[in-house]
Write the structure tokens for this entry.
Amino acid sequence: MPDGGGEPAGARGAPATPRARARSAALWGLVGGFAFLALAQGYRLLGPGSLPVGLGGTALIALGVGVASGGLSYLAEARLRAKRRT
């Protein structure tokens, strides 16, 4: 039975192909990295002073945050889809 959107009640989103999961994880990694950079910039503008790392260190931390958030979202998506919570 359609749920108002013209789709069957059980059909949602793209299928969980490895390529779709990797693309989703990469996008979440970008979101995580840019969110960290935005927070770091806000701290530099409004905080008590400079960060204890320079611009290169901030970029490396943002890269690490992006990789971690992308990896975690890749792993969590399969678990959430198995529990039908996506």
Observations:
- The chain has a mean pLDDT of 83.
